[in-house]
Amino acid sequence: MTLCARATAYSSSANLGPGYDVLALAHTAFQDRVEACIARAGGERRVEIVSVEGPEAERSGGAATAGRAVEELLGLAGVHARVELRVWKGIPPGRGLGSSGATAAAAVAAVSRLIGVEDASLLLEAAGRGEAVAAGQPHYDNVAASLQGGLVAVAPLSGRPVAARIPLRGDLHVALLVPEPYRVEGKTRLMRSVLPGSVPLQVAARNYGRSLLLVAAACSGSLRLLGEALMGDEIVEPARAPLIPCLEPVRRAALEAGAYGATISGAGPSIIAVAGSRLEAERAGRAMLEAYSGCGSARSIVAVPAPGALESVEVYG
Question: Domain 173-303 belongs to what topology?
Answer without folding.
Answer: Alpha-Beta Plaits (3.30.70)
